[in-house]
Amino acid sequence: MTDAGIPPTPPRLLPDEIHDAVGPGTALLRLETTGSRQGLLDGAWWPRSRNVEREIPPLVTALAAHLGPVTRVGLDASAWNGIPTRLVVDDRVVHLDSFPVGDATVLITRGDSDHFSLLVVPPDTPPEAARAAMARAVRADNITHAAEILLAGTPGTATPPRGPA
Questions:
Q1: Average pLDDT, the chain
Q2: Which of 164, 73, 155 minimizes the C-alpha distance to 120?
Q3: What is the pTM assigned to this prediction?
Q4: Res. 88: pLDDT tops 60
């Protein structure tokens, strides 16, 4: 207990009611509003470009402020331009992994094995569709995969894409 009689907040849980701008005018980040982590996704991120060196540092800085140090970021190789193997963010080395998965997510690793999965809303998504996708992704009871959430917000698309034949 603290001197005020209020117990301290447990460290490194997903914070309540997070809806932060990540860097002025660069991206929007939204995390699930419960520490339970029962949904399929832990949050959503709407970067403003496909430039890793410009978009990842403010994301990592914002996440580290709420979750603690971020050690790795996993990206879809086909969705980003020129992915380096590491970046220095706030004087810490963050390792970048890339895989050709096409699943519309970014994986954040805190420590050695604590993973957070964020929906990545494409930069050119209209604001209304982006907000709707992000709101759906952060629902605690969400069981819809990221690619399906994005397709639901795309006019004229009725079925999700199929994997390679």
A1: 77
A2: 73
A3: 0.73
A4: yes
Judge residue 146's burial from the number of C-beta atoms within 10 Å of its C-beta, 0-12 exposed, 13-18 middle, 19 or more buried: buried
Tell me the C-alpha to C-alpha distance, in Å, between residue 156 and each of 124, 133, 149, 151: 17, 16, 14, 9
Q: What whole-number distance in Å separates Cα of residue 104 and Cα of residue 77?
A: 11
Q: Residue 8's pLDDT is what?
A: 47
**Of 118 and 21, which is predicted with more confidence?**
118
For residue 122, give both structure tokens.
């494409």
Element (H, E) at 43: strand 43-47
> 119 by DSSP, 3-state: which?
strand
The Cα 83–Cα 100 span in angstroms is 12
Give the number of other Cβ atoms within 10 Å of residue 78's Cβ: 10
Q: Identify the three-state secondary structure at position 26.
A: coil
